[in-house]
């Protein structure tokens, strides 16, 4: 059969018209990048449904809360941002003009998960303790807990704000009397594990659960830990009597041109059905008040503690935490000065260390630098371990002079010789053991930076044997290897696995890796 | 067979094209009768504009209205107003601020709403026992703002009050508001408390303002972090409960609108407290384009839209309908407020806000 040409043309015209009509053609889903807190990873499984229902595809790019806040305030180009809260972000200069809209998506208070048997022993399962009682147990060594670094992660930040508001006789002023300051210090005597991210803290708690009694985190993370089947003993949720600080997960619109997509995403998340899914699958409390709360959320009406409204108050709280309240940190830096480090690599290493000594004046740089009371031991190595150098920092008033001598030390680093990675690391653990004898109350950690494969001294297997022979309280010291140059990535991951540490990739930006590790020290 | 099929097909297709052209033409023609306009609104009116009945009534008046939310006091400074057809902030001072930025424009005030304090029955009972709240005709009145103001100066805490078993909390007795720099409802709270601080007189001079400021600033500074828009604290009140939000300064319309919703988040223990004296927030529409200005007139004059405004909790010049609705739906709201004050002049209020802003930064 032969169709007349006119008919063919007509068919083509009509088809063309239907296709052009627009609404019926499925639009290509544009990808919207969202700068997001790592604690929102558990929302990802909902995103395909979001795309199906709204045509908007979200891609979450993860970052720490404070880091993210800083990047955005410096103009990082993201159409949307999503963190556990935006309170700190809004206090940074210039941010208010950038935020076009914000809508809260869900709720999760920062609480304390205490091992069931421990909670029972203290009677906390029957009647919730005050922050003060929790602090007293921690100070007495009866409550060993994990909490993230408040300068790097929002769960630790919220807990610190809550603790201070609860202990202060003037919660709205966030001021502490000398006696209250001692109470805060007492609380942190119980801290045995820190981290730069809430998610990693939860994983690390699972690994170290034998030696810990409690973990401070979002209620959602703790409920997920309980559901995960990895815990030998479930956690009892403790909602301190004075109150808590609650994350409200606002989705922020930064690019006004994306308003329509943003409105769709918000409307989707705030439907009753999706709020319910968020509650069931991510253990967050619904923002929509008409969605009834599940039975597993034990405390319903939580007292919400005040949150500072001024940047200066937040900075004062964080500085006081670092310089006065937190357990004294003793960080070991095991540094490769072999011949292959010559040139740009050595320059990058020096710059990274100088950043931690005050050269990085950014907001996060100030919190990441070496702080008052901190002990820093440098263990450079080539064919063998070189003479270590420990710099003890005293008070914030004297720190400039002390850092200056540290800078002079780092500036004279020069490259040459072989690579005795494991011998150096074994030496670091030996020195941790020694230091721990004198100061068991300090928080020890090891950073390993090497750009090559070990070619001198112990090998990995011998190191492992030596490590496993260490006393348990030394073995808890984690090693944070940095990938750099031709470092043996498999071995570095093996070291992190063995010691419970975490690998950081410095191959693109060595300074950023050193800075990020500070949250874990 | 082939011979008959081809012309038939052609005929069918021509008919199809004819229909298609007609279809798209008629669509365009109806579009031409209406104009699409975009405006910035205070968040408290978002639900009103999102209501399909409101949209339909507006379309019948030839308007397709798109809105974006903003802190009422931020509209004048944080947005490029040239891109919008109208601004519809809450509060005369916020409207004045916009008029200062764009010059003389037409304004309309289609509705208004009193400032109220959203609270909880156990809290109201504690306040009643401590002599600052009194129940009258089923409505709670906060009659002693003087004493509340005194509490804020002495930093009185909930645990210091008598008969406080329901709320023995170590937090200051402090009404939560929005960010006074950005949002009208906080500015209205400041207006109200400045009247109290000035010995029950509207502040009228720089001297009176300077004298009152040191005692007014803590009402805001001590709240710590505050939200930019009136929707935020009310949302927290509904979602997080009494522990988070014992006393929240809101618009009466927010509460009524939520109470009339299906399903509603309003529970029996949620109550409103009416400060005495009271203060109204006027919702002023500033026309930025000709069609934007027309929206103001339509909202003021269209019978259906005026009725819908009342259903959204606003008060209009039609007091009888508002009262009838309250009676019918058993809302504990007074038909009218006896003692009402005006906010201080634009210059005084802005001056106070700027002084507080300096302390905040």
Explain what you see.
The complex is a heterodimer of chains A (521) and B (361). In chain A, helix 7 crosses helix 9 and helix 15 crosses helix 22. Chain A has 521 residues and is an alpha/beta fold. Chain A folds into 3 domains: 117 residues, D-Maltodextrin-Binding Protein, domain 2; 137 residues, D-Maltodextrin-Binding Protein, domain 2 (3-Layer(aba) Sandwich); 193 residues, Rossmann fold. Chain A has 22 helices and 18 strands. Chain A starts with a helix and ends with a helix. In chain A, strands 5, 6, 7, 8, 9, 10 and 12 form a 7-stranded mixed sheet that branches. Chain B is an alpha/beta fold and 361 residues long. Chain B folds into 2 domains: 129 residues, D-Maltodextrin-Binding Protein, domain 2, CATH 3.40.190.10; 192 residues, D-Maltodextrin-Binding Protein, domain 2 (3-Layer(aba) Sandwich). Chain B has 15 helices and 10 strands. In chain B, strands 1, 2, 3, 4, 5, 6, 7, 8, 9 and 10 form a 10-stranded mixed sheet that branches. In chain B, helix 8 packs across helix 9 and helix 9 crosses helix 15. The mean pLDDT of chain B is 91. The interface between A and B is large, with 49 and 43 residues.
Map the helices and strands.
The complex is a heterodimer of chains A (521) and B (361).
Chain A: H1 5-20, E1 31-37, H2 47-54, E2 57-63, H3 65-73, E3 80-82, H4 87-91, H5 95-98, E4 101-104, E5 106-115, H6 116-122, H7 131-139, E6 145-146, H8 154-167, H9 178-188, E7 191-193, H10 198-207, E8 214-218, H11 219-228, E9 235-238, E10 245-247, E11 250-253, H12 259-269, H13 272-282, E12 285-286, H14 311-325, E13 329-336, H15 344-359, H16 363-368, E14 375-381, E15 389-392, H17 399-411, H18 421-438, E16 443-449, H19 460-468, H20 472-475, E17 478-483, H21 489-499, E18 504-505, H22 510-517
Helix pairs in contact in A: 7-9, 15-17, 15-22, 18-19
Chain B: H1 2-33, E1 35-42, H2 46-50, H3 52-60, E2 63-70, H4 75-78, E3 86-88, H5 92-102, E4 107-120, H6 121-129, E5 133-136, E6 139-142, H7 145-154, H8 184-197, H9 206-221, H10 231-240, E7 248-251, H11 252-260, E8 270-275, E9 278-287, H12 290-301, H13 303-311, H14 319-328, E10 340-341, H15 346-360
């Amino acid at each position: 059969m032969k169709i007349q040409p006119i008919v063919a043309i007509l068919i083509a015209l009509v088809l063309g018209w239907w296709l052009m009509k627009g609404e019926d053609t499925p639009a290509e889903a544009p990808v919207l990048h969202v700068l997001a807190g790592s604690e929102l990873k558990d929302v990802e499984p909902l995103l395909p449904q979001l795309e199906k229902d709204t045509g908007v595809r979200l891609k979450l790019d993860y970052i720490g809360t404070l880091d993210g806040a800083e990047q955005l305030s410096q103009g990082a180009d993201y159409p949307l941002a999503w963190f556990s809260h935006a309170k700190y972000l809004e206090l940074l200069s210039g941010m208010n003009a950038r935020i076009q809209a914000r809508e809260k998506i869900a709720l999760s208070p920062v609480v304390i998960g205490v091992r069931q048997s421990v909670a029972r022993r203290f009677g906390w399962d029957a009647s919730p303790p005050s922050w003060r009682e929790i602090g007293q147990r921690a100070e007495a060594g009866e409550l060993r807990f994990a909490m993230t670094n408040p300068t790097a992660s929002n769960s630790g930040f919220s807990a610190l704000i809550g603790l201070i508001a609860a202990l202060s006789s003037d919660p709205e002023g966030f001021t502490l009397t000398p006696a209250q300051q001692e109470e805060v210090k007492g609380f942190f005597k119980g801290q045995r594990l820190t981290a730069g991210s809430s998610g990693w803290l939860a994983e690390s708690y699972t690994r170290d659960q034998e030696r810990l009694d409690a973990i401070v985190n979002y209620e959602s993370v703790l409920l997920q830990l309980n559901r995960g089947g990895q815990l030998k003993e479930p956690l009892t949720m403790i909602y301190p009597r004075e109150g808590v600080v609650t994350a409200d997960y606002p989705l922020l619109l930064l690019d006004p041109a994306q308003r329509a997509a943003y409105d769709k995403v918000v409307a989707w998340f705030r439907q009753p059905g999706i709020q319910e899914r968020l509650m069931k699958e991510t253990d967050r409390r619904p923002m929509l008040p008409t969605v009834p709360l599940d039975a597993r959320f034990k405390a319903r009406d939580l007292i919400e503690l005040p949150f500072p409204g001024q940047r200066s108050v937040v900075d004062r709280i964080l500085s006081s935490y670092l310089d006065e309240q937190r357990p004294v940190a003793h960080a070991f830096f095991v540094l490769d000065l072999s011949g292959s480090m010559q040139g740009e690599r050595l320059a990058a290493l020096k710059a990274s260390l100088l950043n931690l000594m005050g050269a990085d004046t950014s907001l996060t740089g100030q919190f990441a630098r070496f702080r008052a009371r901190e002990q820093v031991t440098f263990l450079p190595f080539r064919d063998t371990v070189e003479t270590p150098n420990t710099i003890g920092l005293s008070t914030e008033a004297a720190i400039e002079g002390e850092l200056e001598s540290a800078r002079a030390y780092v500036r004279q680093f020069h490259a040459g010789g072989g690579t005795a990675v494991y011998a150096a690391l074994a030496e670091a653990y030996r020195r941790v053991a020694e230091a721990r004898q004198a100061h068991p109350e300090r928080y020890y950690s090891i950073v390993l930076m090497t750009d090559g494969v070990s070619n001198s001294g112990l090998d990995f297997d011998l190191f492992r044997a030596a490590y496993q022979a260490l006393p348990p309280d030394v073995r808890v010291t984690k090693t944070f290897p940095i990938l750099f140059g031709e470092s043996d990535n498999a071995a570095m991951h093996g070291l992190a696995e063995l010691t419970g540490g975490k690998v950081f990739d410095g191959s693109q930006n060595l300074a950023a890796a050193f800075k990020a590790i500070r949250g874990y020290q | 067979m082939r011979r008959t099929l081809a012309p038939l097909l052609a005929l069918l297709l021509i008919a199809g094209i004819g229909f298609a052209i007609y279809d798209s033409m008629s669509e365009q023609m109806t579009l031409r009768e209406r104009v699409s306009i975009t405006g910035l609104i205070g968040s408290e009116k978002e639900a009103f504009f999102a209501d399909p009945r409101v949209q339909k009534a507006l379309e019948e008046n030839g308007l397709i209205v798109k809105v974006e939310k903003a802190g009422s006091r931020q509209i004048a400074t944080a947005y490029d107003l040239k891109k919008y057809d109208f601004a519809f902030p809450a509060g005369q001072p916020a409207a004045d601020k916009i008029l200062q930025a764009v010059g003389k424009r037409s304004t309309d005030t289609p509705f208004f709403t009193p400032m109220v304090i959203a609270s909880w029955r156990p809290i109201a009972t504690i306040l009643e026992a401590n002599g600052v709240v009194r129940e009258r005709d089923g409505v709670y009145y906060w009659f002693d703002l003087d004493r509340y103001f005194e509490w804020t100066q002495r930093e009185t805490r909930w645990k210091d009050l008598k008969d406080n078993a329901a709320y023995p909390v170590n937090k200051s007795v402090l009404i939560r508001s929005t960010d006074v720099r950005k949002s009208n409802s906080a500015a209205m709270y400041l207006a109200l408390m400045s009247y109290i601080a000035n010995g029950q007189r509207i502040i009228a001079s720089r001297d009176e303002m300077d004298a009152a400021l040191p005692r007014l600033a803590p009402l805001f500074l001590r709240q710590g972090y505050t939200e930019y828009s009136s929707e935020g604290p009310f949302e927290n009140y509904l979602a997080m409960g009494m522990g988070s939000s014992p006393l929240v300064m809101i618009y009466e319309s927010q509460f009524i609108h939520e109470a009339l919703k299906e399903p509603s988040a309003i529970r029996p223990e949620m109550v409103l407290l009416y400060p005495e004296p009271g203060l109204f927030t006027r919702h002023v529409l500033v026309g930025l384009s000709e069609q934007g200005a027309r929206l103001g007139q339509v909202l003021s004059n269209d019978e259906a839209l005026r009725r819908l405004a009342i259903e959204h909790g606003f008060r209009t010049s039609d007091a009888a309908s508002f009262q009838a609705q309250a009676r019918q739906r058993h809302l504990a709201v007074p038909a009218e407020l006896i003692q009402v004050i005006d906010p201080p002049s634009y210059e005084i209020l802005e001056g106070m806000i700027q002084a507080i802003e300096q302390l905040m930064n």
